[in-house]
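Help! Submission page says 'invalid entity' but I think these are all valid:
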Amino acid sequence: MRAQHLSRAAVGTVLALALAACGGGGGFSGKSSSDGGDKGTVRMLVNITPNLTQSYWEGLVKPFEQANPGVDVKIEAPTGKTVADTLPQQLAAGNAPDVVETLMADRTLAPQMLDLTDQSWTKGTPLVQEAALGGRIYTVGVGEQAQSLIFYNKTAFTKAGIAQPPTTLDELTQDMGKLKSAGYLPLQTAGDFVTGLQMLQLADPSLAQSHPQWYQDIRAKRLKVGDSMLPYLKLYKSWLDKGYLDKNAMGLKYPDSQTRFFSGKSAMYVMGSWFTASEATAKKDFEVGVFPAPVQAGQKSPGPQGATMAAPYMVLKSTKHRALALKLVQWLVTDKAAVTSQLQQDGNFRKGYDRKFTPLEQQVQQILDAAPSGVPQGEGYGDYTLPSGFNDAWNTQVQGLYVGRSPEKVASAVDEWVSAHS
Amino acid sequence: MNFVKRTKRAGDGAATLLMVVPATVVFVVMLVVPVGLAFYLSLTDWDGYSAQPKIIGGSNYTHLFSDPVMRHAAFVTLLVAVAGTAGMNLLGLGFALLVNGTSRINRFLRVVLFYPHVLSALVVGFLWSAILGTTGAVNSLLTAHGGSVLPFLSDPTWALITMIAVLVWAGFGVNVVLYLAGLQAVPRSLVEAARIDGATRWQVFRHVTLPALGPVVTVNIVLSLVTLLKTYDLVVSLTAGGPAGQTQTVAYLILWNSFHDNRLGFGSAQSVVLMIVTGILALVVTRMRRRGEMAVYS
């Protein structure tokens, strides 16, 4: 009996210590925001990329600091691999930032974020309603990224005798044959996250037409992801079998795939609009063109364009500087100079904001303008979401096509994953 | 008299307690609390954000053992641990024997052999992917001379072998150092006596040097095994778990599930299982080696 009491006391002590270690504003404690006045330090966790460097971010917020004496905006790079890895660790350590960039509110994140629905300045920011969760606004962004784009080597198309970019997937397949005959690798891909992303980008405009309520149908279990994607998986596998894709592409990383495309060895590259920023600075001896991802025969072309919010911002509920954090985010997504700078830096778009467009960017803007609508893709955002981690699970399964798995097996593995994580 | 003894004994007890308490506190805070917390979290559905993690009992563990991705990662991890441990120790001992001298060249070679271990595993991964990737240095050389691309990182089997080879390359420097320390401790008198008795170099190594290295071998095997069971950073930078998730290790999945998929409860269950398996394996290896060492010395 005494031993039982002792062991209970020991377990209690360990758990008490453990929970105490989680205290201090993070972990299991849900603290609400407070207002620390109009002076102080606002910490902003941002994504660092080759385009968006630490010094770029620091330069971006400088005018805000100058306009608000006594305010210091501290730019923080992820301490983990990504912002998504870093934020939960900081929250658990009770060291969360005031503002976070890159992430978008989902059912997991939303309870940690400030509800911005009552902030009038959020209205009119790009995709703000599409990203809303249950009608509440948590995420605001700077611009839009077009997702379903195919960049192509104009010299390769000319040499292969292709006068016009394809508008249907059948035409795309035929053109791939011509490009292969002309000595080009028709479609450039890579390992990393690229394989699955490209498949989603390619399928979006068709999928949005054949299943307009795709997210709702998946969530309501009226439709399976694998079943709806099977035609595209089969098509992709046929391209792989015909040598239209490099069977060793899984040994390439994301930057390698861009380098290979710019080297002129491959003819097409499926990627989002941010690729225009890389194109603007890349050395190459051919002109790059772009066309929207083709659709299935009989569907409207161009189809809906896969669209995501560029540079999304959220304010943490736990912030001690609510007013300042809100003021900063408002400035970041509405100040003309700040918005234009961010659009320019990462190759993003926003209606009504003129910036110096490269010829390729002008084409992307035209594609965005011509698209009948913008649709989420993959994991999605706002109310249109699949379980967290879907994009990576999808990517892993699509790569299975390269290691001998059949499209049917890939589709069923995706469905198993969705079912297990729903 | 009894009173004096009792007072002295009480004083000794207080002093002992005073000396034990700091170490115990450090042990509890640094080890017991995190392990206890991990176990507690493994029984919840915590997503890393929610204020109130819900206790869900053992369902994380049930899911873990039925998850095909986890089963494959466990297989990969064991393969990496066993093959890597063998590779690190064979190379470590081999090179230690080669550079076990006091000449300048030996000193230089020791530095060279230890150097890869100093590099961050992330750097090592990116370095080797630049060398062995589809458009890496080796394949560029091959294709430039009319050869075809070798699928070092694009074929599942090749990628696994490549990953193990790079892990061995990056880690065996530590084994070299430990074996060198062990070799310095082998009694010269025993080696000389064996030589006088007409033993060949191989016989000296087999019957004198190797048995004397027994404890060092144990330490090396256990250290390599435990390190390799936790392989994570090299997977991130070399293969990113691909192709098709075929090189994902358990540690890689733990980090991925916990912080990428916001399933910290599930990730904690994986951590607890990995910790228990690592502990059991380390214990088994130590026991087996000790039995072997006892047999040699008896």
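Support: the input was valid. A stray whitespace character was the problem, and the output above is from the cleaned input. Chain A is about 45% helix and 15% strand.
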